[in-house]
Amino acid sequence: MHLLPPFALLHNPVRTYAWGSLTALPELTGTAPTGEPQAELWMGAHPSAPSLLLDPDGPTTPRPLDELIAAAPDTLLGPDTVHRFGPVLPFLLKVLAADRPLSIQVHPTRAQAAAGYDDEEARGIPLDAPERMYKDREHKPELLCALTDFEALCGFRPTAATADLLDTLNTRDTRNVRNTRGVPMLAPWADALRSRRPAAEVLPDLLRDAFTKTRPTHSELATLAAHLHRIAATDSPYAEACAAYARAADEHPGDPGLIAALLLNHVRLAPGQALYLGAGVPHAYLRGTGVELMANSDNVLRCGLTPKHVDVDGLLAVTSFDPSEADVLDLTGEGQFPTPTPEFSLSRLHPTESPNRADLPTPQILLCTEAAARLRSPDGAVLDLPRGAAAYLRPGAGPVWLTGPGAEVFRATTGAPAQAGSGWPKSRS
């Protein structure tokens, strides 16, 4: 089996999770809203929801990309990618559209994933069991680039700043005579964060307390939510963060994961800004639409703001308790977002009327997010990519030219070193 021309239009599945937007993905793809939340548009070969494309040598109906790759890995991935990652597409591209907060979650390292998967297999835990944490043996680093204003929680805030936030929440509301106290349960937490103990000891204790030892009552969490709303309406430097935490509290009343949320950096991304999330970094996407690229894995350990299973011991074993400010990647113009991950690389392109070489020695997916783009090969094959459409480009198929005045195109491919020799400039910023 081979693909002629060297590119093909992808037919991509939409995942309908409860936190998704009713309108964002339909607006991007030019389709009618269905009335149910549309959370993620998947582009890739993950076996749970692969993209479909047309095999010219086979049936007239599109076939799953993972099946086509399994039948001809060297053709569709290239020998170098097969040598590095095996006969699978090593990345998964998504458009994520959130109207409600996602759960706080952490992803394991590859070694942790392999050990966790083997352990759960040995204990006979079914893959679809609610307490199952490891669905495969791979890690899941990810990169999210905002298409709209985007809010997230990412990584542990420096401990002194979190102690100040907790003190702010524990102050008395002088405008309300019935509120003679703030949130007293937060006082010992603030004291612990100001102690001389290292963060790697204090933060795990606080998380364990929130979920097990001194689990807050519904009444205490309701009081905390009320104070979050109060601080959000002030000129406090924590007002924006408290507004985000308050929305999460309203969505998940009584969830002790709210305490975990308070420990994390609140981040606002403007369109074009990005976050990279490596293994062990706790995070939650709150609202907005973005392009997300990740290793081809489905391993998620949840840390609250969810009705799903939370394994506290398993969570603490994989979480990185290294406080720091969130690192926002700010790429002006076009170019490649820097990450240390070999499985994937994300670039933003702005093609013009003049043809630009788009082919690489690696497999790639091109997603058009603004205006329209066009792919052309020397034999005259043409593929138009309207806004919201994506194409799969196989490696080593000769020149492919990309045009599109006014277009914005995101390119997903494998990471270094296989990108050497690209015909597209790495950056024009």
How far is the first residue's CA from the last residue's CA?
40 Å
How does the overall form come out from the CA principal axes? globular
Can you tell me the residue ranges where pLDDT is under 50 for at least 5 consecutive residues? 418-429
Question: How many beta-strand elements?
Answer: 23
Mean pLDDT figure: 90
Largest sheet data: 9 strands, antiparallel
Beta-strand content bin: 15-25%
The share of residues in helices is 25-40%
Number of helices: 12
Q: Structural class from helices and strands?
A: alpha+beta
Rg over CA atoms, rounded to whole Å, is 23 Å
Give an overview of the whole structure:
With 429 residues, the protein is α+β, with helices and mostly antiparallel strands. The protein has helices at residues 24-29, 65-71, 73-77, 79-85, 110-122, 159-169, 187-194, 199-213, 218-232, 239-251, 257-262, 312-318, and strands spanning 7-9, 14-15, 40-43, 52-53, 63-64, 91-98, 105-106, 142-146, 150-156, 264-269, 273-277, 283-295, 301-302, 328-330, 335-337, 345-349, 356-357, 364-370, 372-376, 382-386, 390-393, 401-403, 408-413. A hairpin with a 5-residue loop joins strand 19 and strand 20 (382-386). It is globular and about 75 Å long.
